[in-house]
Write a structure and sequence with these properties.
- By secondary structure, the protein is of the alpha+beta class.
- The chain has three domains: 4-65, Uridine Diphospho-n-acetylenolpyruvylglucosamine Reductase, domain 2 (2-Layer Sandwich), CATH 3.30.43; 70-182, Uridine Diphospho-n-acetylenolpyruvylglucosamine Reductase, domain 3 (2-Layer Sandwich); 230-333, Uridine Diphospho-n-acetylenolpyruvylglucosamine Reductase, domain 1 (Alpha-Beta Complex), CATH 3.90.78.10.
- It contains eight helices and 20 strands.
- The protein has helices spanning 32-37, 90-99, 117-121, 192-200, 208-222, 243-252, 270-276, 305-323, and strands spanning 4-8, 20-27, 43-46, 52-53, 58-65, 70-75, 79-85, 124-125, 128-129, 134-141, 146-151, 172-182, 230-234, 240-242, 259-260, 265-267, 283-284, 287-289, 296-299, 332-333.
- The chain has a five-stranded antiparallel β-sheet with strand order 6-7-12-10-11, with no helix packed on it. Strands 1-2-5-3 form a four-stranded mixed β-sheet, with no helix packed on it.
- Helix 4 crosses helix 5.
- The longest helix is centred in the C-terminal third of the chain and has 19 residues, at 305-323.
- It starts with a strand and ends with a strand.
């Protein structure tokens, strides 16, 4: 284990926030974890840094995940099980899958970050969630100094949620994930924007690759490239409300969009709520809300993490006052 002191984390987070880590190391092989376990400092695990807001210098040890590798664990006529190391870039995995004709994660193309974040966050987009393909998750348990593997059910997946955000938060280091992908997939094109883009592309016969590229086109048209403008993608979750609350809002806002979750629950796009409150395109100095996507907070240069947090707090307060809905942040905050 090679320790570095007072390392700037600016290159390691997509917001481009310049704060330092007290201690910094990289994990390139799973054997490194045993040595790191003996370190007494508090441990912070860093993947792609694409779902992270740094608000202050980070005390303790920052561990940069660099575990790489994609292998076929098993396969049959219907499916293939891919064992993927947690430091692999998520989008690289999607491209690997669609180029081989394996379906299941094509709707999740161009989501930034690493494979290790996919079960923690249960990432999702365009009607698909990671939990639908995750077969198992293997992790190093710091306290027990051992590797454990949890099945899909044991991961307790929910909307942008899992056991790794609760009972196992800060207690484990995810090392690999097994995904069960289909050789004969049934594609999900239920979202109108996805159907429209496929039509614009002239796609008449669906494939995993066609859907992935349609999603990429949509995301590229709406979301800023972190290499050009600092951001962490969607900053807020889409809130879920009761049908009764939705009907009350509908009486006042006839155009309010919704997606049924169940007979009693409705999901409302957070972007619509934020835009209705006048935040879309807001800018003050180097911080703001993206002009094309109200869910995305941006750093135009040298914004401070604490100022971006304050902006998010102002947005939460405004939406609560207008709609009586409390937005929940999706990003991690250090």
């Amino acid at each position: 284990m090679r320790l570095q002191h007072n390392v700037s984390l600016k290159p390691y987070n997509t917001f481009g926030i310049d704060v330092s880590a007290e201690l910094f190391t990289e994990v390139n092989q799973i054997n490194d974890l045993a040595a790191i376990t003996e370190s007494p400092q508090h441990k912070h695990i860093l993947g792609g840094g694409s779902n992270l807001l740094l608000t202050q210098p980070v005390n303790g040890l920052v561990i940069h995940n660099q575990l790489k590798g994609i292998t076929i664990e098993k396969e049959d006529d219907e499916s293939v099980w891919l064992n993927v190391q947690s430091g692999e870039l998520w989008h690289d995995l999607v491209l690997h899958a669609v180029n081989n004709g394996w379906g299941g994660i094509e709707n999740l193309a161009l989501i930034p970050g690493t494979v290790g974040a996919s079960p923690i966050q249960n990432i999702g987009a365009y009607g698909v969630e990671a939990k639908e393909t995750i077969d198992s998750v293997t992790f190093w348990y710091w306290k027990e100094k051992t590797f454990l593997t949890y099945s899909n059910r044991e991961c307790a997946f929910g909307y942008r949620d899992s056991i790794f955000k609760h009972q196992l938060k800060d207690k484990v280091f995810i090392t690999s994930v097994v995904y069960k992908l289909s050789k004969k997939p049934e594609y999900n094109t239920s979202y109108g924007a996805l159907k429209e883009e496929l039509a614009n592309m002239g796609v008449f016969e669906l494939s995993a690759k066609a859907i992935a590229y349609a999603v990429m086109n949509i995301r590229n048209s709406k979301l800023p490239d972190p290499k050009e403008i600092g951001n962490a993608g969607s900053f807020f979750k889409n809130p879920t409300i009761t049908r009764k609350q939705y009907e009350m809002l509908l009486a006042k806002y006839e155009s309010i969009p919704m997606y049924p979750v169940s007979n009693e629950l409705i999901k409302i796009p957070a972007a619509w709520l934020i835009e209705r409150c006048g935040w879309k395109g807001f800018r003050k100095g180097d911080l703001g809300v993206h002009a094309k996507q109200a869910l995305v907070l941006v750093n135009y240069g040298n914004a401070k993490g604490k100022d971006l947090w304050k902006l998010s707090d102002d947005i939460v307060t405004t939406v609560k006052a207008e709609f009586n809905i409390v937005l929940e942040r999706e990003v991690q905050v250090w």
